């Protein structure tokens, strides 16, 4: 079968959970004998806008379309872009696609769904976040606190710089990005200009709430055209059932690549807690480091791995993390190669996932399950579906330094609990089993 995946990024250019999963599932389908193409977004400031990149990776044909957003003249062009639609249609025709599998549409275009239906292709979409509802996809406000509900005026305030940016400032930002560092005074000044326009715009922010409402309406319309959905958690299905017919959504846990999960385990002198993932405010590394500061390095170790991702409205966060690392002496290695994740898990006793946002199905939790590493995690979003409190790990109040420190102290004082939890861990679904289910759905839709 000829399968065309659509995603907003792919390793090595983008390394977050959805991108890594798309790499694994497309590779598994290719290894099973199917013809697989991935249509993805690239962000290459030095290349012409909409330039097409083509490559073969592990038996999968990868077509990248360059979209730095520098040609965007309106907020609507950030989610509906005819040039990207045209590029997708060309790829779909060229590869002889029989089914379209959407993993994410951010930085691409919802018009891709219209083109797929125009070509008579069935469309399956995996739900990885809240992007059909929330423009940022995370239900996290600009101050990095969780967002309780979707309210047009609040969304407009959150999106202010994007809604009020002019074509000139978008172009200037893209040109500057091509030549100067993200942390340079020029980039900071351009960011300040857009934020200032948002802050001091007249009431309504140049029609900002109306722009948000238009996006909501177009997302809802697009959602009706997609044939079937896969949701990695029951929680996410419940959250998105307000925009998607529930009967279209199948709860289907993501499959995982087990290659390397049996990496030889090392042993430390003290209990070793680990953080693995992108370092952003809502991922909670600061909470872990503050808990470690309370406990003290003489009682345990903390190992943190992951790139510090700049967040415009929290430019100080990297400095906060640097200061806490210096104060606590925690080990921090920075960005890691996804291929080494099981080696990293082999060097810790307990994984900590202290998220403050309602995560759906964190990749690192599933990898920890594959490596049989217990998890301390926040009781939020879909996480409790994968970490059974008091059985395979411990759940704590999101953002609570005291609760996290208490959970860590408990395992330090009762290390036998770690082995008991390990013995109860059920490994996640394999990527091969997941790929088989995808094929079954494609075949059902083609009938």
Description:
- The chain is an alpha/beta fold and 447 residues long.
- The protein has 3 domains: 2-139 and 212-255 and 431-446, Glycogen Phosphorylase B (Rossmann fold, 3-Layer(aba) Sandwich); 152-208; 271-424, Rossmann fold.
- It has 16 helices and 14 strands.
- It has helices at 17-31, 82-95, 111-118, 152-158, 160-164, 167-179, 185-200, 208-225, 234-240, 285-295, 317-328, 341-345, 363-370, 401-413, 416-424, 431-446; strands at residues 2-7, 35-42, 52-57, 60-66, 99-102, 123-126, 228-231, 249-251, 271-276, 300-305, 331-332, 350-353, 375-378, 393-396.
- Strand 10 (300-305), helix 11 and strand 11 form a beta-alpha-beta unit.
- Helix 6 (167-179) runs antiparallel to helix 7 (185-200) and helix 10 (285-295) crosses helix 14 (401-413).
- It starts with a strand and ends with a helix.
Question: How much β-strand is present in the residues?
Answer: 15-25%
Order of strands, main sheet, comes to 3-4-2-1-5-6-7-8
- Report low-confidence residues grouped into runs of 5 or more: 195-206
Tell me the distance between the termini. 14 Å
CATH class of the largest domain: Alpha Beta
CATH architecture of the largest domain: 3-Layer(aba) Sandwich
Q: H/E element string?
A: EHEEEHEHEHHHHHEHEEHEHEHEHEEHHH
Number of domains: 3
Structural class: alpha/beta
Tell me the name of the CATH homologous superfamily of the largest domain: Glycogen Phosphorylase B
- Shape estimate: globular
Main sheet: strands, sense, barrel? 8 strands, mixed
CATH third-tier fold name of the largest domain: Rossmann fold
Q: What's the count of strands?
A: 14
Mean of the pLDDT scores?
87
Please bin the fraction of helical residues: 25-40%
If helices are DSSP runs of H or I spanning 4 or more residues, what is the number of helices?
Answer: 16
Query: How much is the radius of gyration in Å?
Result: 22 Å
């Amino acid at each position: 079968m000829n399968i065309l995946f659509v995603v907003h990024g792919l390793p090595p250019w983008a390394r977050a959970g959805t991108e890594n999963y798309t790499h694994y599932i497309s590779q598994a389908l290719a290894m099973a004998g199917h013809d697989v193409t991935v249509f993805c977004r690239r962000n290459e400031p030095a290349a012409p806008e909409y330039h097409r990149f083509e490559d073969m990776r592990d038996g999968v044909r990868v077509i990248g379309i360059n979209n730095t957003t520098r040609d965007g003249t309106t907020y609507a062009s950030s989610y509906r872009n005819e040039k990207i639609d045209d590029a997708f249609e060309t790829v779909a025709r060229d590869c002889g696609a029989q089914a379209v599998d959407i993993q994410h549409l951010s930085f691409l275009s919802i018009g891709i769904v219209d083109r797929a239906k125009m070509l008579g292709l069935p469309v399956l979409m995996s739900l990885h976040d809240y992007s059909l509802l929330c423009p940022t996809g995370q239900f996290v406000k600009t101050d990095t606190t969780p967002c309780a509900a979707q309210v047009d005026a609040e969304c407009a305030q959150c999106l202010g710089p994007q809604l009020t940016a002019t074509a000139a400032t978008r172009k200037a930002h893209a040109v500057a990005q091509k030549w100067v560092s993200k942390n340079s005074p020029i980039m900071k000044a351009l960011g300040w200009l857009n934020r200032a326009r948002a802050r001091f715009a007249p009431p309504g922010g140049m029609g900002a709430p109306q722009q948000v409402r238009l996006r909501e309406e177009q997302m809802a319309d697009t959602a009706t055209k997609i044939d079937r959905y896969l949701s990695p958690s029951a929680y996410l299905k419940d959250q998105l059932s307000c925009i998607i017919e529930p009967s279209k959504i199948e709860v289907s846990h993501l499959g995982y690549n087990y290659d390397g999960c049996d990496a030889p385990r090392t042993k430390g002198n003290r209990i070793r807690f680990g953080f693995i993932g992108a370092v952003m405010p809502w991922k909670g590394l600061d909470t872990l480091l503050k808990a470690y500061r309370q406990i003290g390095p003489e009682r345990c170790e903390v190992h943190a791995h992951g790139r510090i991702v700049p967040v415009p409205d929290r430019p100080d966060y990297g400095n906060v993390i640097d200061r806490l690392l210096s104060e606590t002496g925690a080990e921090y290695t920075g960005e890691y190669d996804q291929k080494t994740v099981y080696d990293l898990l082999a060097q810790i006793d307990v994984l900590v996932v202290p998220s403050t946002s309602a995560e759906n199905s964190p990749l690192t939790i599933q990898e920890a399950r594959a490596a049989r590493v217990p998890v301390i995690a926040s009781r939020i979003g879909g996480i409790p579906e994968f970490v059974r409190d008091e059985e395979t790990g411990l759940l704590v109040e999101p953002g609570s330094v005291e609760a996290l420190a208490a959970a860590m102290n408990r395992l330090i004082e009762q290390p036998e609990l770690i082995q008991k939890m390990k013995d109860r861990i059920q490994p996640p679904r394999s990527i091969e089993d997941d790929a088989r289910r995808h094929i079954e759905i494609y075949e059902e839709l083609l009938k």
